[in-house]
Amino acid sequence: MSEYALELRDIRKVYKTATEEIEVLKGITLKIREGELATIMGPSGSGKSTLLSIAGGLDKPTSGRVIVGGVDITDMNEEELTRVRARKIGFVFQSFNLIRNYTALENVMLPLLFTGIFNVKEAKEIAIRALEVVGLKNHANKFPNQLSGGQQQRVAIARALAPNPDIILMDEPTGSLDVDTAARVLSLVKWLNDAFGQTIIIVTHNPEIAELSTRTYYIRAGAIYEEPPKRTLTEIVKEIKSSGSSGDIKKIQLEMLKLKLEALERALKEDRIDPTLIEAEVNSLEHRINRLEKAL
Ligand SMILES: Nc1ncnc2c1ncn2[C@@H]1O[C@H](COP(=O)(O)OP(=O)(O)OP(=O)(O)O)[C@@H](O)[C@H]1O
Questions:
Q1: CA of 205, closest atom in ligand 1
Q2: In whole angstroms, what is the distance from residue 238 CA to residue 243 CA?
Q3: Full residue range of the structural domain in which residue 102 is found
Q4: How far does residue 198's CA lie from ligand 1's centre (Å)?
Q5: What is the pTM of this model?
Q6: Which one, 111, 175, 212, 256, has least CB within 10 Å?
Q7: Are strands 167-171 and 63-68 parallel, antiparallel or unpaired?
Q8: From ligand 1's centre to the CA of 258, what distance in Å?
Q9: ipTM of the complex
């Protein structure tokens, strides 16, 4: 058994769309030791969920290796991955992802049955214990819509926990919960890490969750850091300006101004507006169009 619950080696991820290629992850190496409660933070669109999907074998990296509990899952086919995911990886997402017409108990039993290890009776016994761990033993036969948001998230945690996975991956696990319920769910997560030694990775925007964790990582511009990247406001503004979008915005603005000018000229020609009222506006539009054309 490896000392790492999860190892990501030089992970690159390039998304190809019809018009462009985006390199979201630019060679990320990450080693999560057993028993860690790690958080991954970073700006919106920085690739946190992409990294989590790759770590969980839900998505393939463009290059690099993914090793879960000492097993290299990078080149596994879908059938092998389904087994490995069920045995070694638990998932908890913001939207709970419980199956609506299954009871809480059945929802927790499902990944246990997917492992191919347990029969129905064994899966049931383990699932009941997992529900007990999250304080929901008495709600085992309820359907998701008969449970509160916090209870549903606890069922999702029981489901992730039941197969005794090497690692539980959580994507904004408290994102859709109110503050009090979120705090209760988080204290359960923290307790599972402390008492069970369960290795957990949480992707979040919430710095308070990072405070609970044993280690915090930050993703920015496709790279990962253990310290929050220190940037001045001027650097952030420069980065946004040079991100390529401001040129496009100017072009769109120019098109909009030209369309407005055309419309004004048409209205003037067709005698639909008072010329004295719009003279200044036409002048100002022409001036702005000139300036933008020079800037592009
Ligand atoms: N299937 C896909 N095809 C093309 N681009 C994608 C795809 N999935 C994600 N992206 C792009 O990859 C980038 C990273 O997305 P990702 O969801 O991993 O970011 P994130 O850090 O989790 O963002 P957030 O905090 O807003 O959830 C984004 O620019 C996104 O638009």
A1: 25
A2: 8
A3: 35-54+77-230
A4: 28
A5: 0.78
A6: 256
A7: unpaired
A8: 34
A9: 0.96
